[in-house]
Structures are given as C-alpha cells and as structure tokens.
Amino acid sequence: MKRKNRLSIQEYKDGILSGNRVILSRAITLVESALDDDNELAAKLINEIYPYTGNSYRIGITGVPGVGKSTFIESFGAYLIEQNKKLAVLTIDPSSQKSGGSILGDKTRMEKLSVSSHAFIRPSPAGDALGGVAHKTRETMLLCEAAGYDVIFIETVGVGQSETAVKNMVDFFLLLMLAGAGDELQGIKKGIMEMADSIAITKADGNNLDASRQAKKEYQNALHLFPSNENGWNPQVLLCSALQNKGLEDTWKILTDYYFKMKQNGFFDFNRKEQSVHWMHQTINLYLKRNFYNRPEIIEKLATFEDAVRSGKKHSVQAARELLSFQVNN
Amino acid sequence: MKRKNRLSIQEYKDGILSGNRVILSRAITLVESALDDDNELAAKLINEIYPYTGNSYRIGITGVPGVGKSTFIESFGAYLIEQNKKLAVLTIDPSSQKSGGSILGDKTRMEKLSVSSHAFIRPSPAGDALGGVAHKTRETMLLCEAAGYDVIFIETVGVGQSETAVKNMVDFFLLLMLAGAGDELQGIKKGIMEMADSIAITKADGNNLDASRQAKKEYQNALHLFPSNENGWNPQVLLCSALQNKGLEDTWKILTDYYFKMKQNGFFDFNRKEQSVHWMHQTINLYLKRNFYNRPEIIEKLATFEDAVRSGKKHSVQAARELLSFQVNN
Predict the structure, then answer these.
(1) What is the residue range of the signal peptide feature (chains A, B) (predicted)?
(2) Which residues in A40-76 are b (16+ Cβ under 10 Å) and which e?
(3) Considering only CB atoms, which chain B residues are within 8 Å of A320?
(4) Which of A85, A116, B312, B323 sits between 20 and 30 A of B291, alpha carbons compared?
(5) Taking CB atoms and an 8 Å cutoff, what residues of chain A touch B142?
(6) In the sheet that A57-62 helps form, which strands lie side by side, from edge to edge?
C-alpha cells in the first residue's frame, strides 16, 4: 500500500536523476522513515538509482563542537562551489537522537551554503539505537550521488560511535583539530586520530598562529609514529583559517593528490568494493539485531538483565542465553 | 548426553577451585569445544564458578611479531612469580585459525614459565570466523580466576581484529613497541596506540638504548596529543630489556599504580561492570550471527552475493535483504 505523500518509484527516480532538490529531499525522507512499507519502497528506489551512484568524492569530516566545523565546511564548501563542484553536506550525529535536535538543524549556521543552488544540506536522520543512523546516511549519500553531487561531506562530531561507520563509507577522512585547546575541547574519541587521512588545524590566525604552527609540527611528528597505511598514503597536517580564507586551496590540493594517487595504485576502487561488502554484512547484522531487540518480550526484560549482569548476579553469557531463549520459545 | 572424557559439573568445579591444573585444562577444552552439548555443559560450569571469579588483575599485552613479546612475557612473568603471584597467560591469535597453529603453540618459547607451577600457559583456541575466539578466551579467563590465578595476561599480535575485544575484557592494556624498527615490524593495526594504557619499548639495551630513549620521548609527546582518558589516567612510556632484566619492576609499578588509582576513583569496578554488559550484548550478537551464517543456504550463497556486491551488480542493502529472506522463507 502506498502511503499518502509518497511518489512512485519512477517519479522519485526521474526527479533525482534530473537533479530536482525537492524530490531528492522527499526521497531522503523515505529512506529515513521507520515504517516498514517505506523501507520496502526505499530499498526498491536505491536499487533503481544504484547504477547512477559512485561518481562523487566522499569525504568524512570530523571534529568536536567548538573546533569550528561548520565554519570550515561553510568556507571550504563555498571554495568548492567556486571550482564548479556540486556539494552535498550530510551529518551523522547520534546525540541528536536524544535531544531531538541535530547539529545541522540550524541551517543558518551555514548561511552561504544554505542558499546556494549548488549545495544541498541535510541534517542528521533520527535513526535508532542499533546503529541505523549510519545506514540511512549511506543511502542518502547514494541518492545525492544519483542527483549529481560531485563532492559529499559526511560530518560527525567525533565523540560518539559513528566515526568507524563514517570511515567505512568515505574515500577520505579529515580530522579538524584546534591548537592549544583544552582537553575538554579536544575530547575526541580514542582511535580517531589514527584513522585520519589528514588533519586540518582550524583557526590558525591572529594570536593563535604561532600555537597552530607548533601544533602542526607536533601532530606531524605524532603521525610519523603511527602505524603506516596499507595504501601508502602519508597523512598531512595543514593550517586553516576561515577568517582569512586560508588553507582551503591546500586542503583541496591534498584531497585531489590523494584521489589521483589512490586511483592510480588501485586502492580507491579496492576500498570502495570492500566497503560495499562491509555494508552488506553490516546491514545483515543490523536487521538481525533489530529483529531481536525489537521483540516486545526482549524490550520488557532487557534492562532487568543488564542490571543483573552489572551487579554480578548473572554471568553475561548466561544472561545472553536466557534472553535468546525467549526468542526461540515465543 | 554426556560425552566420553567429560567430567560432571561438580568434578570440574571442585577441580578448578582446588587449583588442579589438569582439570582446569580439561574445563578449558570444554569451553573451546564447538559441540552443542559441550557448549551447554560449559555454560553451566561457568555459572557455577562465576561467584569465584573477578579477583585477578587482567592485563592485555599486544605487540607485533618481532617486538619480543614472548621474551617480555617470559621475564615479566618470572618477575611476578618471584613476587608470589600466580600467573595465567592466554592468547588470542585469529591467524592461528587458518594455519591451525598458534603463537603459543610452541611452549618452549617460554621455558621458565612453562615449567613453573605458578604459571599456566594456554595457546589460542580455534574459535570461528564470527569472532568466537575472544568469547572463548574470556570464559577461559574466568576459569583461571576461579582456579586462583592472580594475574592474567591476554596476549594478541596487534595486527588483527582482536584488540578491541581484548580492550573490552582487560583492566589494563599494554602495548609493546620497538625503537627504530621499520614500518613493517611496527605494522600494528590503526587505533591500537590510542587504546594503550601504557607503552613499553622493548630491547632497550646495548646499541639500541639511545634510539629507545629517543623513542620514549617521542611517544610521550605523541600520547600527550591524544584524547585524554575518561578515567583520568595518563599513559606512561617505559623502557624494557629482557636481556638485562630491566624495566620489569617499572612495569609492575605502573600496573599497581594504575590499579590503586582506578580502584580509588571507582573506574576499575565501573569498567568491569560495563564490560560485563558489553559481553552480554556481544554474546547475543555472536549467537544471532552464528544462527544466520551457519545456515546451509547462506553458506552456499554468501560468496556469490559478496562477489555481486563487490562488482557493483548488487547494492549491499539489496544483497543483505535477499540473503535475509532465505532465512525467513526456509
């Protein structure tokens, strides 16, 4: 049964391929829907547009709140549009699930981009507790590719569980850091620094310039100690200033340098293929978990079992087996 | 039905609690078994001994082959035995699944420990492709605790998928590194350095001493740039030499320092409780995946679907949904 306000697959497809932003938005809403019949329709739509995907440069951008992420995306996005690129900015922010808000909910934070006909900004989907947010963002990325966007930013806040998911859906992972910031501000999740394909130090201007230069040196030394990348890429550290419009060209140069090197040595395509297989397994895993954790008897009992395990009353394997037995018996 | 060569739960329990090494070994073999009736018996046994677990210091030790891991464990283990500790050394080595061997298979690599009545060495279990190795090692750890071992080393090779699992089952995560080693030798997995609670630089002697001192300084600077730990702990870098028996006391000092600080600020117990809940969910996930991927129709079709996704013929979500539909329909 088709829901009200839903278009036909053909209408979605034609609209997306012709670059119609309104229909693209409605297709994303379909992908983000929690309703079963919407999910069916969305899966069919993705299959239809799948041959038209894969032509964008997928870039993950991570940095904690306060690092100047939206300012960086605003300036860098404007720079890319000047280079005749069409840009889509998507966000994964699991914290928005709780607050009901979203880090990109306030579009006015990106004034220039939000009014440009060459940019498409979409805040974080609601998702569910089982990791569905990243899946939805990945499908949204495919829709944007079919709609002709050449560059796609996937933005995360660097403090949650999303960064590994993002690393597994992008071609390049850019980490934004701030020189001389306190621990609180730098409080990104462990392991993210080692994932970064490059680090951009933001707000490298005025009184902060010397500290930023020093930080660049320190991060370069630190990156040198990290395990080397299987693709032969050496992560770069660069200085940026949105205030002075500095570092944007450098950032794009590093990105294109990476792109051509990875295309040439075969890693770019290899990585995308393996990412696709990865997402097949992730999707299977998500559906298996959803099917289990959404059962009424599991929802009812889960917290009690977690408490029993936490307090040592039950061993974790025993608790797991008991919970699983409800699934088998009911 | 009880299998040949299996003891009763009571016999296992009595043997383990009295510190009988032969019965402990047989109980571990039961835990590692792939047979359903063994799994049932093992789950009951773990429940029985569960109240006697939790009293050891659980230490993860990671380093790539060549870093001197077994030499370090041999000397440090001997040092701990001199301090009247009983030590168990367990290994997770997913690569042993393929070769059929194990990094601890050759016990002669740890001559002193393997003949000591205060040390218990157990090589890596075979496990399965779905991550079952870590689950089995965690249960083996519980059996060793019930048998009275005060310190448990969980050893991994730092190049696979096991380190996150190990981080989630130990109290302290020690990374072994080598100064001035080529990229190949240092080729540990990304993200491991940021997980480490401390780094020990091995073979810091003779001609290597200056380079080791320099490396210590560099790693200390690098660790300083990492995100800070929620528990307030600052990872240390120390120098070790098995040849000169140096750094063992320092290592133990850092470990005890960490232990008392984390006991005092409550992180130690908090972390163990959260780890238990984590393993309940991991166990549920493992069983769900096993139940799915072990179905004959999935085993038969999986490689074809992976190839279709890799070559772009099928979208990953479509492939996942089709594979899942076999489960529903059969």
Answers:
(1) none
(2) ebbbebbebbbebbeebbbbbbbbbeebbbbbbbbbb
(3) 279-281, 283-284, 287
(4) B312
(5) 315
(6) A119-122, A87-92, A151-156, A57-62, A172-178, A198-202, A236-239
What integer pLDDT is reported at residue A105 of this predicted model?
A: 47
CATH topology of domain B54-265: Rossmann fold (3.40.50)
Listed in sequence order, the residues at least 6 apart from B223 whose beta carbon sits closer than 8 Å to its beta carbon are B199, B234, B235, B237
Enter the tokens of residue A111.
């004034």
Question: Cα(A271)–Cα(A276) distance, rounded to whole angstroms?
Answer: 9
Q: How many residues does chain B have?
A: 330
| Residue reference for tokens 């001197």 | B68
Report the pLDDT value the prediction gives residue A288, as an integer from 0 to 100: 94
Q: Of all residues in chain A, what percent carry a pLDDT higher than 70?
A: 88
Average pLDDT, integer, range A238-260 = 94
For chain A, the domains span 1-52, 54-265, 295-329
Residue with structure tokens 């930013």?
A153
Given this model, what pLDDT does residue A313 score?
A: 92
Q: Which candidate in B288, B302, B311, B326 is best for mutational testing of the A interface (most A CBs within 10 A)? A: B288
Task: Check if the beta carbon of residue A170 is closer than 8 Å to that of residue A60.
Answer: yes
Tokens of A117: 């006909």
Give the pLDDT of residue B75.
93
Say yes or no to pLDDT of A285 above 50: yes
Local confidence band at A303 (pLDDT 50, 70, 90 cut-offs): very high
Low-confidence ranges of chain B (pLDDT < 50): 96-107, 184, 330
CB of A91 within 8 A of CB of A183?
no
For residues A28-56, give the mean pLDDT.
92
In this complex, the residue of B277, B278, B316 whose CB is nearest that of residue A279 is: B316
Residue with token string 């693209």: A24
pLDDT of A9 reads 95
Could you list the beta-strand ranges (E) of chain A. Answer: 57-62, 87-92, 119-122, 151-156, 172-178, 198-202, 236-239
* Whole-number pLDDT of residue A150: 95
d(C-alpha B327, C-alpha B323), whole Å:
7
CA distance A122 to A29: 10
Give the CATH number of domain A1-52: 1.20.5.170
Instruction: Say if the ipTM goes beyond 0.90.
Output: no
